[in-house]
């Protein structure tokens, strides 16, 4: 394998009745994880070493790809193997046509390095498709193709992951341990689609603590010249700068916006109970952009519209492959990918959170809007959703 970061693409053909699939990776020492932190997947999208992060899905022309970015130079010395796996969501891999795993080199324009087409599947709901392994001081890749009928849970347990299980009342309460064990990994999730766009956080048990909204996108860099040293590129321009924002309306009638523009980062423990954690200028950060909503004050929230604008670096969302995840502190995460953009849109409404009689509902919007000439993206999304605010120019 090249001594550089590699993009691992899990792909398949989609269509009616085809289940969703998810890519994951496990870092192993003597065949097992050191802890649950060595499992990288949709609920735990980045490894603490920075060696692996989950980039999310994209859907183009009937083909879906879920990707991981793996930097083998940052894998800790004691790690011997990095397992690359896939799990089916809502069906079996016998219903997933054209399943493959492909390794690409981002430094060379995503040039393919290796590919393995899975020869076929039946009732399996999880697969180990391949693995990186150390041999004589270098990293190599091996195709595997080992299936599991017990899903991601069975695969994770096989490598030493502690998986969360539904709690059942015990007949006699046991004494509390002196030191609480680590929290198990939670594999449940909710994926919103055009056919099923909404979910009730109340019914999921996710109406207290904080709700973290994460936006991640694939950084798209542009070549800007040659260095003259061995014919190597001199530099790459920064990728597009996307801004995660939120329009809010409180039950007392007050309205506003949380965004990096104008340093309107909000507040978590006072109105509007929404806070933007920071401003990721390139999309290269493992954490992307994050917005936090304090659900302990949900009675003060009437509606919250989460949206994203392109501040600079791109003329539309086409090719940015953004993924949105809403992670309640208590309850299953809610995620969705932005569909392929076919219009010159610089603002996209992501999700609408409404509070009706105490029932918090998240609705997937994924609605691309095209501002008219001279109209800001913020004013455009305001008009589309009837917020009725006054806007002035701002900067960051």
Automatic annotation (TrEMBL):
TerD domain: from which residue to which, for each copy? 5-159
Name residues in a coiled coil.
none
Which Pfam family name is an example for this entry? Answer: TerD
- CDD domains associated with the record: TerD_like
Which Gene3D superfamilies does the annotation name?
A: sav2460 like domains
The family annotation for this protein states:
Belongs to the CAPAB/TerDEXZ family.
For this entry, the protein name equals TerD domain-containing protein
User: What is the source species?
Assistant: Streptomyces djakartensis
């Amino acid at each position: 394998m090249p001594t550089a970061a590699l993009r691992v693409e899990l792909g398949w053909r989609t269509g009616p009745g085809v289940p969703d699939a998810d890519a994951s990776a496990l870092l192993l020492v003597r065949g097992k994880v050191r802890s649950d932190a060595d499992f990288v997947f949709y609920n735990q999208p980045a490894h603490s070493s920075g060696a692996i992060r989950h980039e999310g899905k994209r859907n183009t022309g009937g083909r879906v790809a879920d990707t991981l970015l793996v930097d083998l130079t940052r894998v800790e010395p004691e790690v011997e193997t990095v397992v690359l796996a896939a799990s089916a969501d809502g069906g079996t891999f016998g219903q997933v046509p054209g399943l493959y795993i492909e390794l690409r080199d981002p430094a060379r324009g995503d040039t393919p390095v290796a590919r393995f087409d899975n020869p076929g599947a039946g009732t399996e709901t999880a697969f180990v498709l391949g693995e990186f392994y150390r041999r004589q001081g270098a990293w190599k890749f091996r195709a595997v193709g080992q299936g599991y009928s017990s899903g991601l849970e069975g695969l994770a347990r096989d490598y030493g992951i502690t998986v969360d299980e539904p709690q059942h009342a015990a007949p006699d309460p046991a004494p509390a341990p002196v030191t609480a064990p680590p929290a198990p990994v939670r594999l449940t999730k909710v994926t919103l689609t055009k056919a099923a766009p909404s979910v009730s956080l109340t019914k999921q048990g996710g109406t207290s603590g904080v709700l973290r909204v994460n936006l991640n996108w694939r950084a798209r860099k542009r070549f800007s010249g040659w260095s003259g040293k061995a014919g190597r590129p001199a530099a790459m321009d920064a990728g597009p700068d996307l801004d995660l924002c939120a329009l809010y309306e409180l039950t007392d009638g007050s309205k506003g916006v949380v965004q990096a523009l104008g340093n309107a980062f909000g507040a978590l423990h006072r109105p509007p109970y929404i806070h933007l954690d920071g401003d990721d200028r390139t999309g290269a950060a493992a954490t992307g952009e994050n917005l936090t909503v304090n659900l302990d004050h949900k009675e003060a929230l009437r509606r919250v519209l989460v949206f994203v604008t392109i501040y600079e670096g791109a003329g539309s969302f086409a090719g940015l492959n953004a993924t949105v995840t809403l992670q309640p502190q208590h309850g299953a995460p809610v995620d969705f990918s932005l569909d392929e953009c076919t219009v010159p849109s610089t603002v996209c409404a992501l999700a609408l959170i409404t509070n009706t009689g105490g029932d918090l509902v998240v609705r997937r919007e994924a609605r691309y809007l095209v501002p008219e000439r001279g109209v800001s993206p913020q004013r455009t999304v305001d008009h589309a959703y009837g917020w009725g605010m006054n806007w002035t120019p701002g900067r960051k």
